[in-house]
Amino acid sequence: MRPYQTLIVALLFLVPLSLAGCGNTQPTRFYVLSAIPQKPAPSPGQGAAIGVGPITIPQYLDRPQIVTRTGDNQLALGEFDHWGGNLDDNIKLTLASNLATLLETDRVSLFPWKDAAPIEYQVTIDIETFEANDQGTAVLSVFWSIINPKDGTVMMTMRRSSYEEPTGQGGGTGVAGVLSTASPRPYDAIAAAMSRDLEKLSRDIASAIAGLHPS
Q1: C-alpha–C-alpha distance, residues 20 and 11, integer Å
Q2: CA gyration radius, the chain
Q3: Which 8-state DSSP code applies to residue 69?
Q4: Ranges of H-type helices in 39-185
Q5: Which of 96, 109, 138, 210 satisfies CB 3.0 to 4.6 Å to 113 for a cystine?
Q6: CATH H superfamily, domain 29-212
Q7: pTM value?
């Protein structure tokens, strides 16, 4: 058999194998953060006027894949487990919904807002860490402050807050346990734990705003 004929036979043999491999590709799953249950809507125009943002996240989190930490200096990406949309937008929307519920207000604006937005308290957040770690815990570490957007005065100086929530899976086996094949939807637990971290931050922010807002 001539060399080119041998190559053709080899290619014809490999094509079905490659197609079979494509057929085994897993479907991508998408996740979102969840807000706390909403209360009955307040009367229109009632409550504190809040502006949420800007919110910054580390560059390594700014990607579709859900990021987990497998060691002090190592990260893992969820190949088939992605965020539904941009993570920073997801965080912003969840925080806004939480604050509207906790402070019983319908006057919540998302950054960037129009100049005419009647904002009394602007919440700025810089996220340092927001992922599940190798101890099976979802960790949120942030710097946040409250300012008056009208004149830029600081109403509450920047504060650093950290929160931890167990994923509820894997015990002490860390991320490797949470993401084991024993659990068909392990990232559900991670997204839920991250949502609980965000709820704790929302409650701290709501408490600070309530202390600033005249009764």
Answers
A1: 14
A2: 23
A3: E
A4: 87-102, 174-178
A5: 109
A6: ABC-type transport auxiliary lipoprotein component (3.40.50.10610)
A7: 0.82
Do the Cβ atoms of 134 and 175 come closer than 8 Å? yes
φ, ψ of residue 136 to 5 degrees: the values are 75, 30
For the chain, the farthest-separated pair of C-alpha atoms sits apart, in whole angstroms, at 91
- Using one digit for the tens of pLDDT, what is the confidence trace for 112-168? 988 777 899 999 999 999 999 988 899 999 999 999 998 889 999 999 999 999 987
pLDDT computed for residue 85 by the predictor: 93
Indicate the domain borders of the chain: 29-212
Tokens coding 29: 């799953």
Higher pLDDT, 213 or 123: 123
What's the confidence (pLDDT) of residue 137? Answer: 94
For tokens 């490999």, the residue is 14
